[in-house]
Design a protein that fits this description.
- With 528 residues, this protein is an alpha+beta fold.
- The protein folds into 2 domains: 63-183 and 355-427, Periplasmic binding protein-like II (D-Maltodextrin-Binding Protein, domain 2); 186-351 and 455-527, Periplasmic binding protein-like II (D-Maltodextrin-Binding Protein, domain 2), CATH 3.40.190.
- It is built from 19 helices and 15 strands.
- The strands form 6 sheets. Strands 1-2-3 form a 3-stranded mixed beta sheet. A 3-stranded antiparallel beta sheet has the order 4-12-7, with helices on one face. It has a 3-stranded antiparallel beta sheet with strand order 9-8-10.
- Helix 2 packs antiparallel against helix 15 (380-388), helix 6 packs parallel to helix 14 (366-378) and helix 9 (213-226) runs parallel beside helix 10.
- InterPro entries: DUF3502.
- Residues 24-37 have a biased composition (Low complexity).
- This is Putative secreted protein.
Amino acid sequence: MKKRIFAIILTITMIAALFAGCGSKSKNSDSNTNKTETGNKTDTANQDNNGKNNGQTDAEYPVIKMVYAVVFPSTDEQAIEEELNKILREKAQAEIDLVGIEFGNWQTQLNLMLSGGGSDSIDLFNSFWYTSVSNLVTNGQVMALDDLLANEGSDIKNLFVSNELEEYLNCGVVNGVQYGIPSMYAYCTENIFYARTEDARKANIDWSQVKTIDDMSDVILKLKEANPDSYYVPGSTEPYWIPKSIDYLGDTNYLGVLTNPTESTKVENYYESEYFYNFLNHVKEWKKAGAISPDPLSNSNPTLMNLLMGVVNGTPGYAWDSAVSMMATIAQNGIDLEGTNVTEALSTTSDATTYMWHISSFCKNPEAAMRILNVLYTDPEAANLIANGIEGLTYELDENGQMVYPEGANGMADLGWAAASMAYWPNVMLCKTWYYEPLDVYEKMMEKNKTCDKSLALGFTFDSTKVANQMAACANVVAQYYTPLMYGEVDIDSTLVEFQQALKKAGIDDIIAEKQAQLDAWLQSKNK
């Protein structure tokens, strides 16, 4: 069970470094939503229903509910909240109420908390693994932030501007209005491939010569030939491949994409593209060689979990940096791996908005909510507290000043807080580093944000309202055909034709045309 949970937390911390999709469950702390309030204020001299006491004080402070994903038991939440509130009372004139949601219920619970506006509604949330910023705006679930950023959140805006990251901040803009703020993290991703060291050495893999998807395919075949009893493509209903060298314009069904996003803004049918044809040709080779693990349609485990469980001895994936990701995966999971990136790091709107903070439309004191965000984005002590917890409780420091597990703890599952500088917190770049990270990991992130390839559509957000019916119909078609094709569980050539025809019938051409029109209008507005 711990290994299963470990696979999930790595998704959060490393931007799905080796796997995409998850559904792990762990203990939550939903009882923390019962904090006693009067309007949007609380008497800090009174304990709440859970016995919390944030300390005696003569003042009253607005209490801002901030949700987070529970991936491990959060037994130290109260202690962390109390330490945070010492800072927030002084610097934000507000208090925070951390509200845990079990990660397996993340989407369902967030939807409930963002729909009713009652006592269970929330103030601050990250839309990671929930929905896009454009959908949040369409659903009326988020508040416009422009005036709040200019006033209570001016330090946040200055943070992006001074670091030359304003184009990423603009990814939270919909129809000219700011609705979200990206977490400070790496805003690019690259496709990667890792294999167990023993297998790679046996196959004499020279990773310096592996630079493309075609090279990756050759490696998979060589690994299989040298290790005939092992598999190197994890067969699962969770996708083993997310194409990170294209810009799929925020749509994980790939219903209209830019296949050459640094050179062209032509929206194409992904399923009729040269990229997809080439990838399916590799699938045919992997299937014939027996490199794909058996029974893919009956396995629902994420990619990394398949590697940890020994289902496969190698896997594709993606990360903001292949070397840093591999170092962390090795240290956190106790396995020997080798590998490399097989595409160059690319930044798209999807990457920049993976971890984005919002103020709920139900928030009664948005000024206080923005003041809290302002502190969490700019104050190192507060940023590290919320991401990693308390020194001596959830981590210790080694001789290099890097975080290590406390005595008696062998991993994050043994802690009382999901201490991993989790990317969805506002600014992990202010945090201490973990022992398995380079000391200059945040400098590397910042540099990569500036030097990575950037999609010509970086900052563009598609509004699917006009083609909602076609989007739904095409999504159903993708659900029927895509996964069997990606594992060669059907005859690829004939099934691909059926798939393409079904998409045409469902209205994919309408979607592509609408995306192109909106993208062209957005590009034209940028050039004015």
